[in-house]
Write a structure and sequence with these properties.
By secondary structure, the chain is mostly helical. Helices cover 71% and strands 0% of the residues. It has one domain.
Length: 101
Amino acid sequence: MGSFGDTIDIGVDVIHPIPVASVVFPAATVVRTLAQHGEAIRGIQEHLLGVPIQEELTALRFRLDVVEAENASLRATIWTMEAIETVNRNHERLVLRLSVS
């Protein structure tokens, strides 16, 4: 499994056309270009879906659930210990009051 710090190389060919004064594009050209861009975007999306990000997220969620359960157990232990300390302090005060009187 990779980590979130791993890089993904995505190659893109960038073409810088020479600006032409006033150009009118036929609707068919615009539609064809948009379709090509859509295909390129779908290709990138398919590539990204192939990366095991989902598996890694599932594993991290599982680990998070385990850690949260451990934390809840520790909090319950702390509360129990605090309750025992409170009972002991109250008992000691009662014993001191009874021994003084």
